[in-house]
Every structure is written in structure tokens, then in C-alpha cells.
Design brief:
By secondary structure, the chain is α/β, with parallel strands linked by helices. It has three domains: 52 residues, no CATH class; 256 residues, Aspartate Aminotransferase, domain 2 (3-Layer(aba) Sandwich); 114 residues, Alpha-Beta Complex (Aspartate Aminotransferase, domain 1). It contains 13 helices and 13 strands. Strands 1-7-6-5-4-2-3 form a seven-stranded mixed beta sheet, with helices on both faces. It has a four-stranded antiparallel beta sheet with strand order 10-11-13-12. It is an enzyme of class 4 (lyase). Its cofactor is pyridoxal 5'-phosphate.
């Protein structure tokens, strides 16, 4: 009999000659402890590591049933294969991966055309890690343009209180005063009148949102631009508009082609969108485009060698994979205009139908109907006293549905809603199942003596 050293026995237990080397048998994996605070001394087989981490991830929610997120949760197998092939390419190395840079340039051109850029040769744009970084870059350009005017006060940015939190972060990080327009009554986003009322000589810009994350509604971009045009004629204050089209800039060009919100409006200086929302790509890509080079001060732009020439770059992040850009271009190639129109229309059809059915259930009151973004918000009627939206959200979670409940911001903190985001992959069949589960739990909720949630742990709004 050959005696093994303790180290040899440990090696065998972790793989070695053990017949369970793959680690797929739970009895084998049970001997291992995942590191929480420090690395283990020895490695484990790849299959074992995969299984252990995969087991823990089973506790996550099912992404396809997540009706809270705007982020894409389904792509075709071919797109996933392409992304895997490009995961090791660093987007910032444009001289080493020139064709990935070329795909990025093509995507920028495609978006500029979709958004009616007046001179395709004059536009400038780039990919980002998401719409939040894109907003930061747009905000930096607005502030730098304002600083060149030589005004002495503190810069400010006008926007509705329904903006995504990245805009408040921008103001904090870059020392800009956020002038947030609160909600009032049934007005849940920025209006032209309220925007202009907060503008002065130190306003670097107005942010208009094409698709509020609170309720899915479009802000009146054309009205805001027209009001700022009138302000410029009256006072000489020339205040640009940035359109945060994180979601809507990939919906409106296909479903609302006659809606003027983009570069057709001369006052719109820049637009951002999320490729990983209704751009139909997995998380990790956004886009920002300026109508011309004058809208993006040249000192913010750096040039890199690219296919024997120069390519302008503007970014906060540097090392990031080229996979998402390749996937965005794949999606443009794959779908074309008609394909995008069909996919987005299907999402809107599911949203409007589902909203209508929820409205007919009895206890609920719709705030929006999913006919702009494929997103809608609803609350309980005033005479419903046995439960509230937080109870509904908690009970739906028991069946795997992630439907967020949250209160609205300043001036409407009395209003708590549920919001449903319909994305590619959320079908009429899944909507039927949601209605069935909601119908099934309502009698139990109606028998409650009152709402059962703890107000201190109620979900506030999250993106």
C-alpha cells in the first residue's frame, strides 16, 4: 500500500486522479468551499469551478421574467457566438483591431441617419459602455461649450425630476447645479413652460427624455425646443437641447417616424441611446452623437491611428470588449429597418394589450398604456384599501415575476406604482401567464385587512 502525502490527497480530492474530476457530482463539490474573503491555496478543475459558481447564480431572478429592466435579456444564438469571438478584443486598441473600429464607425453613421443628421459628413459620435456614460460625455460637452462664453456664475442644467440618476451624478461629479423640475398633478415629466422658466445665462443645456423610465412616456422635445427658440429670440440666450433617448431613440425612428424629436430640430445638439436596451444588444453598449463638430469642443476629442488615418475618440472608459459593438452591428445587419420595425411593434403590441387587460381587472388604474415606449405604469384605485402596489409586487415575485413597485419623486411621493417593461422576447404567451398569475392572487390580496408591506422597506425607484 502506497501512502499519500496530505498534499497529494488534497490534490486528488480537488481533481487529480479522482474519477469525479469534472466536479459535476454534488457529492464531490460538497467538499469544497467557495472563497468569500481570500483566495484558496490551490486551484480546482474548471468544470468544478463552473458548477459551483453556476449553482450560486441559480438564486438570481430569471432575466426573461424581469419586467423591471429595460436591458436586453434575449439575443439569437448567432449573436451570442459572435460576442464570444470578440470578447478578447479591446475596443480602445483601434490600431490593433481596425475592423472593430470600422464597425463602430458604421454604427455611428447608421444612427446619425436614423436620427436625421443634417450633414452626415459633419456628425461626430462614439460607442460607450451604456447610455449613462453617453450622458456624461454629452453633459461634459455642454459644460465646455458654456465655459467658452466666459460667464461668471455656476453652470446649471435644466431637466425633469424623472431623469435617470446618471444626470444627477453628472451634476455632482462635474459641479453643475441640477435644476430639477418637479412633477405636478398628472404631469409626470418636463414641460416646455417649466423648462424655460428655469433657464438663465448660466444654463448649459436642457435635457429632454424620449421615454421616461418612470412611466414610458415621451417628453415633448419639439415643444421644449420651440420654447427655447422663442427664448433665444427674446433674450439672446442660445441654450442647446440634449435628448436622452436611452430607450426611445431606438423606438421612435421605427414606430413614430413623423414625431420630430431628433436632429430635425436645429436646437438639438446631441442625442444618446442604449444599444443594450431597445437597441436589442446584451448589456455593455451605448451611443452618443453630436449634430456637428461645433457641438463637441475639439479639445475634448483625441485622435488615434486607424487604418492609416485618424479616428476621433471621446470616452470615459478605456479598456472594454469589442463584443457589444460587434453585436450591435450584427443586429443592424440582421434586422434592417423592416426587422427593427417588426420587433419594436411586437413589443408595443404586447405592452398595449397587457396594459388594457390589467386595466380591465378592476382594482387597477393605468397611468400610461405602453403606446410610446413599450412600457406602462399602473397603480391601485383609490377605493382599494386591502392591498397596495408593494403587496402585488411581492406576491408576483413568488411566481418568479420581477415587477417593480416604487413611489414617484418630489411633489408626487404620494403616488406609488407598478411598472411593466415589455422587451423583445416577452411574448403574448408570457403576458397571458402574467395575467393568469395576477388574476389568481387578487382574491387573496382582497381578503387582507390592509396593506401588509413595511413602508420602511418599500422599493424606491431604481433604473
Amino acid at each position: 500500500m502506497v501512502l499519500q502525502s496530505g498534499k497529494a490527497r488534497r490534490a486528488e480530492r480537488r481533481g487529480g486522479s479522482n474519477p469525479l474530476v469534472g466536479g459535476t457530482n454534488p457529492a464531490y463539490a460538497a467538499e469544497l468551499t467557495l472563497p468569500h474573503h481570500r483566495l484558496a491555496d490551490e486551484p480546482v478543475p474548471a468544470d468544478t469551478a463552473l458548477q459551483l459558481v453556476r449553482d450560486e447564480l441559480m438564486l438570481d431572478g430569471n432575466a426573461r421574467l424581469n419586467l423591471a429592466t429595460f436591458v436586453t435579456t434575449w439575443m439569437e444564438p448567432q449573436a451570442r457566438e459572435l460576442m464570444a469571438e470578440c470578447a478578447d478584443k479591446n475596443m480602445i486598441d483601434k490600431d490593433e483591431y481596425p475592423q472593430t473600429a470600422e464597425l463602430e464607425r458604421r454604427c455611428v453613421n447608421i444612427l446619425a441617419e436614423l436620427w436625421h443628421a443634417p450633414d452626415p459628413e459633419a456628425i461626430i459620435g462614439c460607442s460607450t459602455t451604456g447610455s449613462s456614460e453617453a450622458c456624461m460625455l454629452a453633459g461634459m460637452a455642454l459644460k465646455r461649450r458654456w465655459s467658452k462664453l466666459g460667464r461668471a456664475g455656476k453652470p446649471n442644467l435644466v431637466m425633469g425630476t424623472n431623469v435617470q440618476v446618471c444626470w444627477e451624478k453628472f451634476c455632482e461629479y462635474w459641479e453643475v447645479e441640477p435644476r430639477l423640475v418637479p412633477m405636478e398633478g398628472d404631469r409626470f415629466h418636463l414641460s416646455a413652460e417649466q423648462a424655460v422658466a428655469r433657464c438663465d445665462e448660466n444654463t448649459i443645456g436642457v435635457v429632454a427624455i424620449l421615454g421616461s423610465t418612470f412611466d414610458g412616456s415621451y417628453e415633448p422635445v419639439a415643444e421644449i425646443a420651440a420654447a427655447l427658440d422663442e427664448l433665444a429670440e427674446r433674450t439672446g440666450l442660445d441654450i442647446p437641447v440634449h435628448v436622452d433617448g436611452a430607450s426611445g431613440a431606438m423606438i421612435a425612428p421605427f414606430l413614430d417616424p413623423d414625431l420630430e424629436w431628433d436632429f430635425r430640430l436645429p436646437r438639438v445638439a446631441s442625442i444618446n441611446t442604449s444599444g443594450h436596451k431597445y437597441g436589442l444588444v446584451y448589456p455593455g453598449v451605448g451611443w452618443v452623437i453630436w449634430r456637428d463638430k461645433a457641438a463637441l469642443p475639439s479639445e475634448l476629442v483625441f485622435n488615434v491611428n486607424y487604418l492609416g488615418g485618424d479616428m476621433p475618440t471621446f470616452a470615459l472608459n478605456f479598456s472594454r470588449p469589442g463584443a457589444e459593438v460587434a453585436a450591435q452591428y450584427y443586429t443592424f445587419v440582421r434586422l434592417g429597418r423592416d426587422g427593427f420595425r417588426a420587433v419594436q411593434q411586437a413589443s408595443r403590441d404586447v405592452a398595449t394589450d397587457l396594459a388594457d387587460r390589467i386595466g380591465r381587472l378592476g382594482p387597477f388604474q393605468l397611468l400610461t398604456r405602453g403606446d410610446q415606449l413599450p412600457v406602462f405604469a399602473f397603480t391601485t384605485k383609490p377605493d382599494v384599501t386591502s392591498f397596495d402596489v408593494f403587496d402585488v409586487s411581492r406576491r408576483l415575485r413568488e411566481r418568479g415575476w420581477l415587477v417593480p413597485a416604487y413611489t414617484f419623486p418630489d411633489n408626487r411621493t404620494d403616488l406609488a406604482v407598478l411598472r411593466v417593461v415589455c422587451r423583445n422576447g416577452f411574448t403574448h404567451d408570457l403576458a397571458d401567464l402574467l395575467i393568469e398569475d395576477l388574476t389568481r392572487l387578487l382574491p387573496e390580496l382582497e381578503r387582507q385587512p390592509g396593506p401588509s408591506h413595511d413602508p420602511e422597506t418599500s422599493t424606491a425607484f431604481h433604473h
